[in-house]
UniProtKB/TrEMBL annotation, chain A:
InterPro entries xref list: Bact_solute-bd_prot1, SBP
Keyword tags: Signal
Protein name: Extracellular solute-binding protein
Xref: PROSITE patterns: PROKAR_LIPOPROTEIN
Keyword set includes ATP-binding: no
Pfam families (UniProt xref): SBP_bac_1
Alphabetized SUPFAM superfamilies for the sequence: Periplasmic binding protein-like II
Keyword Signal belongs to the record: yes
Automatic annotation (TrEMBL), chain B:
Protein's membrane topology: Multi-pass membrane protein
UniProt cross-references to PROSITE patterns, sorted A to Z: ABC_TM1 (PS50928)
Residues spanning the membrane: 7-27, 71-91, 103-122, 152-181, 202-220, 256-275
InterPro entries registered for this protein in UniProt: ABC_transporter_permease, MetI-like, MetI-like_sf
Protein name: Sugar ABC transporter permease
Top-rank taxon: Bacteria
Keyword Coiled coil appears in the UniProt entry: no
Family, per entry: Belongs to the binding-protein-dependent transport system permease family.
SUPFAM superfamilies the record matches: MetI-like (SSF161098)
Keywords per UniProt: Cell membrane, Membrane, Transmembrane, Transmembrane helix, Transport
Length: 417, 290
């Protein structure tokens, strides 16, 4: 009798344990008894949850049989755990991904549902969603649009009678004028985002090609080639002339932003995504975007850099693909996308959008300019990406451009199989 | 005395959890280290030992390993000395000892991420507290780009690691000091030994077990450091603070090279195992001597 009791207790304990463990791995997207389908929307934009929740409420009101369960992770967590969650299909009927390495990995794993024939694609600016297409099919729709060029303080420029230059000599002269007047020309977050942001506009005309880094990763071009050594040389020139703030390699994003917001620096090497945040912290700030042109005016092919990001896809392992597509279609309606843009301060990749804040209009004006997709995101191997940005840090730390390029190429060579 | 079945009954939930959360991931990590799995796909190929070969050939892996060793040695040597000195001062019956012990122990209760963020702000070269204080104190020549200069970034983080954990190790030394019989000290003093002689001939030999614990713990902790470096520099600038754990993390979660990252983890596990075995050996010897 005692043994039977013991066995029963053991089985009960084990069952409880397994229930606890397995319930943690449960599927959050499912159909309930009343026929209502719950789909999961997984992304990393925690700051957008309020705006998204309003949109979800509207969607649910129009589609009473579909419930959207939004889950957000931090962007770091998203990089590290989202793929596992998506792979087992437990969450993320609709999910976001970063362009570059993450999109490439998820795409290779077959996690995207083909959206090629979906009618809502016509709502998007076709040039801006290329990054979600592969082999002639559209797998994901990038929702946000960012211009990755420095922001400048228009009041400071006005004060010193400066205008955005059209060539490298002009840019150096502009920086010299600012420095002479005690203004830091460029606030540069060398410790984190700086190299990865500024390299885009610095390289875009030195090698005006959309696939130069693809060639580097394929072994058909090298970082020791002229385009990259020249780019590093120009970074060194900016640094040696004191056009970045002192000790820029130790400066993080927030501190560089503070220098710009406080008016100590005239330019901030980040991107349009920072405009709304800057305005929030200093409503008096007047801002615009400019890209350093690293060649002579007649050689300049591009005026700036854009990135289509926050790529939304439908999980191929989802049980509710039709409902997931319906939600994606809702997000793609111009009025809904306008609402999202205006509430979050992010530009979007869709057509017929009404932007109602000056910051969104600043970036919106760039839609007609000749921009190239962010070169850094065309590097799909993150080790290579790091080697490239680290070569900038190496030069700012005192290495020669040739040596820094050679060291970075040695790492890239190891990645080429 | 409990019978075997009862013992198993109470152990089984723990064993199951341990197997599920530690043994299974370790074994599957070993398995994936022989594949080219990207961490996402459902299929992968076996690649033999090529991930291990690639790891040893990797320039970044080698840099990370040497940074690991530098970081570990710096932390172990300085932290042991600092915590010993603090313990020798605060083991005495002074009026402020409780307050000071609490003060030095305080950083140990903060999470590494919080510590990293706080020190990132302190180290900021333009707006940070450290450079501002040095400048205000007329010591401008000592200001630096603490985490931006490749020559000092690793040591700047090692300082934070020491700051965060020296108080903890101080407690171990204080416990060791309190275990030393007062009569021995008294006898040494009666024999006319100087303070230094008492420390060298009495205190230090009897503190050997505590010292071994401190050195062992600090060695392992500093070798598998991750949070501080991840938060403060993420391995930069230009790999100056890249260590094995951050390298493995980047491979797995930024580059989707799970197979290669698993091989790196296995190498790391072996290195840590060897280090731990050496420590246990030293611990036994220290205990025997002590």
């Amino acid at each position: 009798m005692k043994n039977i009791k013991m066995k029963s207790s053991f089985v009960l304990a084990l069952t409880l344990l397994l229930t606890v463990v397995l319930s943690a791995c449960g599927n959050s997207s499912d159909s309930s008894a009343d026929g209502k389908v719950t789909i999961s929307f997984l992304h990393w934009r925690g700051e957008d949850t309020q705006a998204f929740q309003k949109i979800i409420d509207q969607f649910e009101a129009k589609n009473p049989n579909i419930k959207v369960d939004m889950q957000t992770l931090t962007s770091d967590q998203y990089q590290s755990t989202a793929q596992a969650k998506l792979t087992d299909g437990s969450v993320g009927d609709v999910f976001a991904s970063f362009p570059g390495a993450q999109y490439a990995a998820l795409s290779k794993a077959g996690l995207y549902t083909d959206l090629t024939n979906e009618s809502f694609l016509k709502n998007y600016n076709a040039d801006l969603i290329d990054v979600g297409a592969k082999d002639g099919k559209q797998w994901a729709v990038p929702y946000q649009l960012v211009y990755n060029q420095p922001i400048y303080n228009t009041e400071i420029f006005k004060k010193y009678n400066l205008t955005p230059p059209t060539d490298w000599d002009g840019f150096l002269k502009l920086c010299a004028t600012l420095k002479q007047n005690g203004i830091i020309p460029i606030a540069f977050a060398g410790a984190d985002i700086g190299p990865g942001q500024l390299m885009n506009t610095m390289v875009m005309n030195n090698e005006p090609s959309e696939d130069i880094f693809t060639k580097v990763e394929a072994g058909q071009a090298k970082l020791t080639d002229e385009f990259w050594v020249k780019t590093l040389t120009q970074f060194k020139e900016l640094n040696d002339n004191g056009y970045f703030q002192d000790n820029s390699l130790g400066t993080k994003d927030a501190a560089a932003g503070a220098l710009f917001i406080q008016g100590k620096a005239a330019m901030l090497a980040s991107g349009s995504y920072q405009l709304a945040q800057n305005a929030k912290q200093n409503p008096e700030l007047k801002q615009a975007l400019l890209a350093p042109i690293t060649v002579s005016a007649d050689q300049a092919k591009y005026e700036g850099v854009h990135t289509s990001t926050f790529m939304l896809g439908v999980n191929s392992r989802s049980k509710h693909q039709a409902e997931a597509k319906k939600f994606l279609e809702f997000l793609s309606q111009p009025d809904v996308a306008s609402q999202y843009a205006n509430e979050t301060g992010q530009n979007v990749t869709l057509k017929d959008i009404t932007y109602d804040s000056p910051e969104l209009k600043i970036a919106g004006d760039w839609a007609d300019k000749k921009t190239i997709f962010q070169p850094r995101f065309t590097i799909l191997n993150s080790e290579n990406q790091k080697a490239v940005t680290n070569s900038i840090q190496s030069v700012l730390g005192g290495a020669t451009p040739e040596q820094a390029a050679q060291d970075a190429q040695a790492i890239v060579d190891q990645q080429i199989k | 005395m409990m019978n075997r079945k009862t013992l198993w009954f109470f152990m089984l939930p723990g064993l199951l959890l341990y197997t599920g959360l530690f043994v299974y991931p370790a074994v599957s990590g070993l398995f994936y280290s022989f594949t080219n799995w990207d961490g996402v796909s459902t299929s992968y190929d076996f690649v033999g030992i090529s991930n291990y070969k690639d790891s040893f050939d990797s320039i970044v892996f080698r840099k990370a390993f040497f940074n690991n060793v530098k970081f570990m040695l710096t932390v172990v040597i300085i932290q042991t000395i600092v915590s010993l000195v603090l313990a020798l001062i605060l083991a005495k019956n002074t009026r402020t000892r409780v307050f000071l012990r609490a003060l030095y122990f305080f950083p140990a209760i903060l999470s590494s991420v919080s510590v990293g963020l706080i020190w990132s702000f302190i180290y900021d070269p333009s707006l940070g507290l450290l450079n501002t204080a040095l400048t205000s104190g007329g010591l401008e020549q000592f200001t630096a780009s603490w985490t931006g200069d490749a020559n000092i970034a690793l040591y700047a983080i090692a300082f934070v690691q020491i700051w965060a954990h020296a108080g903890q190790m101080m407690i171990v030394f204080i416990a060791g000091l309190h275990a030393i019989p007062e009569e021995l000290m008294e006898a040494a003093r009666i024999d006319g030994a100087t303070r230094f002689q008492i420390f060298r001939k009495v205190t230090w030999p009897l503190l050997a077990p505590s010292a071994t614990i401190v050195v062992s713990y600090t060695t392992i902790q500093s070798f598998k450091a991750f949070d501080l470096i991840f938060v403060m520099t993420d391995g930069g600038p230009n790999y100056a603070t890249e260590i094995l754990t951050t390298y493995i993390y980047h491979l797995a979660f930024s580059n989707y090279s799970f197979g290669l990252a698993s091989a790196g983890s296995m190498i790391f596990l072996v290195l840590l195992g060897l280090l731990t075995m050496a420590q246990f050996k030293a611990l036994r010897r220290g205990g025997a001597n002590g």
